[in-house]
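Quick log. Single chain, no ligands specified.
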Amino acid sequence: MIKYLKECDAQTLEDVPFCVIGSGAAGITMAVELARAGKRVLLLEAGDWKDDSSLDDAYEGEATSPHPEAAEYRRQRFGGTTHLWGGRCVPLDKLDLDIRPHVPYSGWPITYDEMSQYYPSAMDYCDAGQADFELTALGSNPDPMFDEFPSLYPEITECVERYSLPTDFARKFQTEISESKLLTVLLRARCTALNTNEDGSNIESITLSNGTEQWQVRAKQFILCGGGFETTRLLLMAQQQCAAWQRFDASLGRFYTCHFDVIFGDLKFKGSLPKFDFEKTSDGVYARRKLNFSADYQLQNQLLNSTFRLHFPPYGNPAHGSGVLSFIYLAKSILAREHQDILNHGRGLTDEEQNKLLHIKNVLLGFPSMLRFGYDWLFKMKLAKRRLPYTLIANANGSYPLEFNSEQIPSAENRIELVSQHDSFSMPRIAVKWQLTDTDIESGVKSFELLQAALNKTNHCRLDFDSGLLREQMSGALPVGGHHMGTTKMGHSDKDSVVNSDCQVHGVDNLYVASSSVFPTSGHANPTLTIIALVLRLSDHLLSKDVT
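-> predicted structure:
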């Protein structure tokens, strides 16, 4: 059932076998799995059915530029950010869990097989088809991205990333949850405190608030699924109240990582053009191709794990010659500057580039393409159950910028801290301290240079860029704002980590974390799919304990 905190009786909050805090992808998956196994579950959501601006204050905080503001890319509502995510589903690579000599603090305390066995079920939750990311997912004998691509093997490989519907978890599971006799969702039920016993070895209760009243919840097991920032904030607050938790000083809130993103370069082809558009897999899922350095090549050249995608030109520069891109740019020109920068590859445009008359000219001359775009937008993006993920329009001159997406090295200086200011629920706000390290920048520059050297050996493909500008662009790379990882990382000991290999907080017998914040390293993959895989693994672990 689904109801509001103010409507529940005391019995609902007492002697709960499983209390799940947060109702995004992680929380709903966890609650559904436990309830399907016959367990009674309480699922708590700080927000409402929909976004409510009156709650925005609770997520406000500080962040060092160019990191997005603390409240951006986060939602307080049933289903969390799954109502607006893009749906990209990408698994981590085996290399991401290994100890890599050139990546400090690398190595997960679990094996790749222990986690990857849950990817097929995670893909089912995301409605993204089979857990098959090889090129053959597009068919039994697909053509390469471009004719000479096989000459780049084995150093550079080609694979696909799949896309969800995208699935709104609240909508998908609303009926099942509403009809469940075992699963209760409480809306407007913000967890404001984790209350430990004296030695910090047990969570005796948690405090809930709807803004006017407070309640206590007592459960046998608590699972934090509130996302990287909120989970970390709750643990940092508990640490302030429990002297024994000072043992987490070296890791809790530290080692914060984002993926970072640069769109750069000019990739040109003679003759036939590359595979650029979305394609459908054999099981009917939208997918895109991407370029990766092999694991051996990364180790040989001491590279961080990254990926390259062919990209569209900046919307704001009318030189692209596309009526569709100009139309989108004009339609979105009323947005705030930071959102315009996303359309323009994270950089400002000159007055000449922003000439609206040239954009209007593109729209008028490109009217036939506008009609095709209108059809795709209506029937493939708005009315379709499985939506075309986003608009892909190639540059009129046949060149392609490259989108580069990379992991960071874990750094203790990148962190989340509590500050003295408090929100409307009397919870301390957070400050996000983030920057690229020299290693991040050098790896990005080297990745572009190595890719350029490989591509320029081919006969019909050339990657051009200004080397000096490359370093400048890489140094100013933008963090991918919704990927919050590392601040409660997984490890073998409380001396250098927060949770163990089962995502249990070290030394606390009934507290678990199901969030990308437990990732020791991040790879280049979007975190949602791996979060769900870890949730499914944790669910199996909790059920094996048979705590009820």
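The chain has two domains: 2-127+166-257+410-434+484-545, 135-165+261-408+439-478.
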